[in-house]
Amino acid sequence: MDVINRYVTIKSHVDGAPQESDFELKATPLALSLDPGSNEVIVKNLYVSIDPYQINRMKSYSSSQKNSDFAVGIIPGEAIDTYGVGKVVASGNPEFDKGDIVAGLLNWGEYTVIKASGMLNKLNHMGFPLSYHVGILGFSGLTAYAGFFEVCKPKKGDKVFVSAASGSVGNLVGQFAKLFGCYVVGCAGSKEKVALLKEKLGFDDAFNYREETDLKSTLKRYFPNGIDIYFDNVGGEMQEAVIDNMNINGKVAVCGVISEYTDNEKRAAPRMIDVVYKRIKIQGFLAGDYLNNFADFLSTTCDHLRTGKIQPLEDISDGVESAPSAFISLFRGQNIGKKIVKIAEE
Amino acid sequence: MDVINRYVTIKSHVDGAPQESDFELKATPLALSLDPGSNEVIVKNLYVSIDPYQINRMKSYSSSQKNSDFAVGIIPGEAIDTYGVGKVVASGNPEFDKGDIVAGLLNWGEYTVIKASGMLNKLNHMGFPLSYHVGILGFSGLTAYAGFFEVCKPKKGDKVFVSAASGSVGNLVGQFAKLFGCYVVGCAGSKEKVALLKEKLGFDDAFNYREETDLKSTLKRYFPNGIDIYFDNVGGEMQEAVIDNMNINGKVAVCGVISEYTDNEKRAAPRMIDVVYKRIKIQGFLAGDYLNNFADFLSTTCDHLRTGKIQPLEDISDGVESAPSAFISLFRGQNIGKKIVKIAEE
């Protein structure tokens, strides 16, 4: 059977904030059958992850492309690979059968033809919605879990600040930190998000950074006894203000730097004299370095989900054609929680 | 017996680069005898340490004053305490006898009256010149040793860069790193210093940063395969250029930030996107947190000194009246190695 496979590409490299005009929806015929002897697998994509870091892959050059295996450059005109969940519709690979639900490296499209081994795993959904496996039970969840527990190495009672706290990773860091026994404050970019953090996700407090004019004073108000741990998703001025308000032996886990992603000249300039005298550690990390923690993360998070101690926060768009606007919305602060595109019904 | 005790004070807080006019040499009579029952000790100061971080103590406010026990504010008009070596001339404390050589918290003066316990220890000079115990065998040495081995956690073959490499700490970091089996490049501010690093101290290479216009390119030239460890004594643009040239899992030990010490607006603005994708760790530290490593440090360093594997680098001024100019010279890059004031002959 032949289908028309629609998928999203970039027309050329994207070096500023992404716009609808940077993307193109392509459509090509695809035979849903494989030659005898082929080792390929064809997956019908169901849910795919939409992540801010992909902007670094779309640039003509970024540090990401040189220094990480998973964030190499995206070639204009070609499909944009991403983590996702799908269903096998044809398989020449003995490890996979037609009908298997799988997770792995899919793309912003309706179908993925997978040639190489190791890019795909059978998914045990464990009774959870498939979308969870793209977000809270996928890399966003692992990023939050490993970043908080392995990089920040928290102690009970630590005072924790999370930026972009209603984002895919930030909301989970806050929830993990609360369950662990920390005092947690988040910041986000709207009243609605702030209310959600406090009322639904159990943050001790939260504020809308867009309403604040002096971030140092703001943080002093929310942390009169200082910050022990900062989970940094944004970089820039917020990081500077945090360092100013940090306690001795404070830790900054740098997960993302959205302020730099679309403005190459934007920088965080933390006061290094504070870094010295407060013995602060600023540590960048990638979830991919913590795959050994995946089993532990998954088991813990599934338990919390089953007992209702942790809330999934998903923001799902419909249809492959919504991928560009879903992606663009991340840079405009329009998403609430994990941004996912639902490509098709199971 | 009464003597005239001359000691240096600041006239008022010093908030920029220090000048001769900021200091005053005072002279007051001091009785070299103690009341019966007194627990005090009077020390004749012999060698005292002159350190850049003291500028932070002289300011009207600095992070140092709030966040560390040893770098609290200096009160204008009062003696400036510092680490030094001296000889007991009177003692009401049963732990010390007249004639004992001691090390501890003395001051920029000819005599120190020590009231509190715990500020002084008897010194076993182990056959080394007393001045060594103020520098290479004192806190400068411990800073280099703990900063390099405990904070940087080097591996043999790591490519190490040291700024202010002819300074009190930097020259030792380079020597420790070479002995450990690293590739070491240092930067300094004159041809003479660069020659000394390469010819006397065994650095693999060195350059004069004042002759360079583009530090990123300079570092790329000296480290074509990237930097694994940066021992940062200066902050500012150099730190930015290092982050740009750093390898995956690179480590920055922030020991000092001389660029910020006399210019509160000067900042390092490293590219955080590099910090994330290269998983870089930037860690501030203070030697005082590594007192448990002192015995190990001392034994190792003494061995290296005895076998000639490590060279002491001292820059000694004569007389208490030279303390202000000795201190000021640190901010003008005029010292070569550990700056010490010799107050008196033993």
From TrEMBL, chains A, B:
Residues 16-341 form the Enoyl reductase (ER) domain. Keywords: Oxidoreductase. GO terms for molecular function: oxidoreductase activity, acting on the CH-CH group of donors, NAD or NADP as acceptor. It comes from the Eukaryota. InterPro entries: ADH-like_C, ADH_N_2, ER, GroES-like_sf, MDR_fam, NAD(P)-bd_dom_sf. CDD domains: double_bond_reductase_like. The keyword Oxidoreductase applies. The keyword Oxidoreductase applies. This is NADPH-dependent oxidoreductase 2-alkenal reductase-like. It comes from Durio zibethinus.
